[in-house]
């Protein structure tokens, strides 16, 4: 059962799917930060000013949060780099395993029916 699980995990499409999910979640954080911290404040600022609010501090709005967005982008690149290193190490381990399997000599092929018959004839002729 452990071998089956190891084979399942080491298949390329499962690894690709896991990488896509992790990278997608990290990129989702970038999009969320872009909308919440940059686009929404830029859209809301003229609306708040038109509403006649003289002091923007009265509104619970902190303005454009470039730092939060930059942190989300840096987080994405850190996650992407870590996933890249993990996949790279996994690919190297898989290639070493395949190379090791190729180096092990294959079992000698079983003689064909013709060869078996010829060996029997040879043995019979020897015994006479």
UniProtKB/TrEMBL annotation:
Q: How does it sit in the membrane?
A: Multi-pass membrane protein
Q: Which UniProt keywords apply?
A: Cell inner membrane, Cell membrane, Ion channel, Ion transport, Membrane, Transmembrane, Transmembrane helix, Transport
Q: Kindly give the Pfam families that the UniProt entry links to this protein.
A: MscL
Q: Name one GO molecular function term.
A: mechanosensitive monoatomic ion channel activity
Look up keyword Ribosomal protein and say if it applies: no
Chain ranges passing through the membrane = 12-36, 69-90
Q: Is Endoplasmic reticulum one of the keywords UniProt gives this record?
A: no
- Which locations, inside or outside the cell, does it occupy? Cell inner membrane; Cell membrane
Q: Which SUPFAM superfamilies match?
A: Gated mechanosensitive channel (SSF81330)
- Chief location of this protein? membrane
Report the GO terms under cellular component.
plasma membrane
Q: What does this protein do?
A: Channel that opens in response to stretch forces in the membrane lipid bilayer. May participate in the regulation of osmotic pressure changes within the cell.
Q: Which family does it belong to?
A: Belongs to the MscL family.
Q: How does it assemble?
A: Homopentamer.
UniProt-listed HAMAP family: MscL (MF_00115)
NCBIfam families the UniProt entry points to = mscL (TIGR00220)
Put simply, this protein is called Large-conductance mechanosensitive channel
